[in-house]
Amino acid sequence: MINKIFTHCLDPGHGGSDPGAVGKRSHEADIVLVIAKIVGRILIENGQKVIYTRTTDKYLTLAQRATIANNNKCDTFISIHCNSAVNKTAHGVETFSHPSSSNGLKLSKFVQSELVKATSLTNRGSKTANFGVLRMSYMPAILVETAFISNALEETSLLQYAFQEKIALSIVKGIFSYLGLTFNKSTTTNSNNAIPKPVVLGHTYRVRLSWEAVKSQKGAYSNLQNALNLLKTLPGYKVFDENGKVVGGNNTATTTTPTSIDTKLLSIQKSLNRLGFKGKNGLKLSEDGITGDNSIFAIKVCQWKLGLAVDGIAGVNTINAINSVLAKPLLKVGSKGIVVRYLQSKLGVAVDGIFGNVTKNSVIIYQNANGLDSDGIVGNKTWNKLIK
User: Fold this and answer.
1) Strands across the sheet with 246-248, in order?
2) How far apart are CA 127 and CA 182, in angstroms?
3) How far apart are CA 220 and CA 63, in angstroms?
């Protein structure tokens, strides 16, 4: 039996300047991008059409995400997220639809059932919520909270490709059940697509009136100084670590000693921003030529993704590698090296420095999503989209 072809919009939550929830070892935005691409691959393998709101680490507003789905007249909208809670023992999977959408509720129930069956996670239920992407989408829309990134055990699962594929396969099966389609083609785990070992992020610092006043929270940062900087504009607020201990406010010092400007570092900060390597807070670096935790963190991530020695020092090898990427060389199947590693990290595929068919297919998806010629070759036009 040949299935009818539907168009599905896949929305990996967060991205770009918004890393989403921050776990001990990962960012939500990175994990959900990988899961969304697996969902897309399985849908395409089963004869369906796929539209992505983003295929790289890119920031989009909620309205922009819904508009992409609406303009493409999609039949379903699937927003994929990782859950998070102050209570580190919170666990399970849940799926949301908009209160006004009966079809959205039906879709969420099918997907939720498949997720619970495949993962054995606690069933937190099919729920309704007035989330912007659900409210502004014209078609049946759901938001999937795959597991808790704030729970150490579930974060470990979220970082494993086999689990990511279970989530993706469950979403596809739920969509097919909702649409009355026959799921004929199973997939096999391909560990080569697993995301690289993540960088350890360390502490999370929250700015609140009190630890118990969760709704008063104004920000959460991996870098203490960024939290302290926000504190200066919020009288009465304090900074808490992940255990609820006050580490800022109540006369806690919030100033740092000025540091001299390093012109070489200033140039590196500008290059890292162009290439999309962000600081510990998930934001662009301050282009100030001052050495700080965010710049060191971004340099380390850059070194790690390009396959260099990770020491946080921008030496000759690091600078040459960055310049090699900024040169935007032509890449195609058979290309190898540092620049291919950078490309793979941007596309969210396994980073091995070898331009194979998996990388080519991901390039084609990116080119289609950005109105480029979908030849799977990274030339100047594709580079100009990847590097702003």
Assistant:
1) 219-221, 205-208, 238-240, 246-248
2) 26
3) 24
- Closest listed residue to residue 35, CA positions, set 201, 159, 185, 181: 159
pTM for the structure as a whole: 0.56
Q: Are the C-beta atoms of residues 113 and 48 closer than 8 Å to each other? A: no
Helix and strand numbers, DSSP H then E, in the chain: 13, 10
Q: What is the pLDDT of residue 153?
A: 92
Neighbours of 95 (CB within 10 A): 29
pLDDT at 191 exceeding the cut of 60: no
Of 331, 341, 324, 308, which Cα lies nearest the Cα of 381? 331
Question: How wide is the angle at C-alpha 25 spanned by C-alphas 255 and 78, nearest 5°?
Answer: 110
**Number of Cβ atoms within 10 Å of the Cβ of 373:** 12
Q: What 3-state class would DSSP assign to 263?
A: helix
Place of tokens 């993704």: 305
Supply 289's token pair.
Answer: 């030529």
Query: Cβ-count burial of 70 within 10 angstroms (0-12 exposed, 13-18 middle, 19+ buried)?
Result: middle
pLDDT of residue 195: 38
How many C-alpha atoms does 34 have within 13 Å on its Cβ side? 30
Q: Would you place residue 227 in the very low, low, confident or very high pLDDT band (cuts 50, 70, 90)?
A: confident
